[in-house]
Amino acid sequence: MSEHRDSAAGTPAVTAGPPDEYVEAEVHRLLAEDPDVAEQGITVVRRERGLVLYGEVESPHRREEILRRVAERFPDVPVTSDIGVIRTQAPTQVEQLP
C-alpha cells in the first residue's frame, strides 16, 4: 500500500490496495479517540481485501455513524460490517425464575 501526504490536512492519505497493519491501527485509533465515536468495543480485523468490523453497539444509527466515519477517513479501504445492535431498553416483562 502506498501512502502520500494530504497537503491540506497534513495527514497521511491512503491509496488503493489491501489494508496493512497501520490502517488497521488507525481505524482502531479513530474509533477509540474520536470524541463523537469513543467506541472501544469494536474489533477491527484485517483481511486480504479489506477490513471487517466486529462488535455490538446500542443502535442502528450508532452503527451507521461508525461506518460513515471509517469510510470518510479511509475511502479506498473496503470495509465489511459485522456490528450487531444490542437491546438497550428495559425489559417489558418480569422474568420468572423456577
Notable traits:
98 residues; alpha+beta; two-stranded antiparallel sheet; 2 helices; 28% helix; 29% strand; elongated; disordered N terminus
Helix content: 25-40%
**Number of H/I helices:** 2
Number of strands: 5
**Largest sheet: spatial strand order:** 3-4-5
| Global structural class | alpha+beta
- Work out the oligomeric state of the chains in this entry: single chain
Largest sheet: 3 strands, mixed
The best one-word shape is elongated
- How large is the share of residues in beta strands? 25-35%
The termini sit apart by 58 Å
Elements, N to C (H/E): EEHEEHE
Q: What are the low-pLDDT stretches, counting only 5+ consecutive residues below 50?
A: 1-15
Quote the average pLDDT: 78
Provide the gyration radius in Å: 17 Å
Walk me through what this model shows:
It is a single chain. By secondary structure, this protein is α+β, with helices and mostly antiparallel strands. Helices cover 28% and strands 29% of the residues. The protein has two helices and five strands. The strands form two sheets. The chain has a three-stranded mixed β-sheet with strand order 3-4-5, covered by helices on one side. Strands 1-2 form a two-stranded antiparallel ribbon.
Short description:
By secondary structure, the chain is α+β, with helices and mostly antiparallel strands. It has helices spanning 21-33, 60-73; strands at residues 3-6, 11-14, 43-47, 50-57, 79-85. Helix 2 links the parallel strand 4 and strand 5 (79-85).
